[in-house]
């Protein structure tokens, strides 16, 4: 007797959709992906122009062990597909007053930098890292790596005790201040919570895990940029018989008696046993169905990115850099208060510092990423004036950092991305860059579940589900969902 393979339809070929497809193909399912854009990858994408290669959004491979785990569990070795190297420095951090800190991955150099701030702060930094490490191990085992769909497995005495140990109610800034006195060192640590689109003054100390895991596991660079991961995943899906339809917008879900049976495209219906939405949860619930009243969620902020192709090498920069402006709190809070920053603090990425192939000879590529309000902010219009304002802030800061007065004259390629682009291209709901906000009411059991609570046959994967935003967490989401589906057999 020939057993029919169960058919999985995936809406969207972001990291979440691709990783789920690979895992389910490997487990013997038939997989068909529909992606609205002409290329796969979703927000993890690429722009190429005049010999410059830009990663579209994600640039930091945080918790790289998740990248390795995906390949390992597929019976492969990541290193056989992608050349990976580790930068010697995590970040060069530049401050408005001209101060500069180098956060090396070499313990001796790192210690030298910290001691130059003060011995007390060096002690505080290592104590903080030790505390974070313990919390990370606990959080990773108890929550991040476990599915939180079931109330019965989440609300156990053991779990509640573990949550208590994580002290989730204090905010990042207050927590860091217990260990560190130097305001600049605090700002460097706090800035990194912005990676998940949260303010360090409001978000739970759980997110100090971000600077911690960077220090413990490093920030490896994938040769060719982050999109290399997407290319390999796409190639494997095709080799393993998965089908990817690009330029294929899913217009709605096909639903009967609150049960999702398939998807509606412009010219046909496709039906499957499992319908998985990699498109963001609030977008799906608002735009692809009209049976269930969508919940209102707290949203993360958005991002403005300036991409620069420069005709000069900039040896004073690292692959990962942070620029901290004055009035740090006021300016980074603005993204959450519906305002543009007056003087931005930002992260900037120069991959050509360690991957020369990403720029023409003697050139450099830079992505500058500023956190800005999402599209719910009524008083920010993404017009030429707004873009000019942000560009001027960036050029001024880069001229200061590089000590090149006429920095703008080096620019050969200039492109940008706004929250409107995130919404238009990837259906990011209200232009959010980092999924649903990670406040405590929307984490773990309280984040949307992988299996829809409202519609049978519908599943979610990606940054609006547990455990949250970022490539590594989305890979975890794909792992948890795939396990759940495989259990159904
Ligand atoms: C500016 C910025 C910087 C970031 N930096 C980092 C970083 O340094 N490191 C890191 O780890 N993470 C980073 N992230 C986060 C990371 O990019 C995301 O968490 C991750 O890419 C989300 O993947 P996903 O699969 O959940 O969603 P997406 O990538 O959004 O994938 C969803 C896919 O669904 C498609 N889709 C939507 N609607 C439909 C439809 N109706 N029909 C068909 N297809 C549809 C979309 O086109 C898209 O391809 C960053 C994000 C942003 C925006």
UniProtKB/TrEMBL annotation:
Q: Which pathway is this protein engaged in?
A: Carotenoid biosynthesis
Cited InterPro entries: Amino_oxidase (IPR002937), Carotenoid/retinoid_OxRdtase (IPR014105), FAD/NAD-bd_sf (IPR036188)
Q: Which Gene3D superfamilies has this protein been placed in?
A: FAD/NAD(P)-binding domain
Q: Could you tell me the keywords of this UniProt record?
A: Carotenoid biosynthesis, Oxidoreductase
Entry keyword annotation includes tRNA-binding: no
Please report which protein family the annotation says this sequence is part of. Answer: Belongs to the carotenoid/retinoid oxidoreductase family. CrtN subfamily.
**What is the name of the protein in this document?**
Phytoene desaturase
Tell me the organism: Turicibacter bilis
Q: Give me the gene this protein comes from.
A: crtI
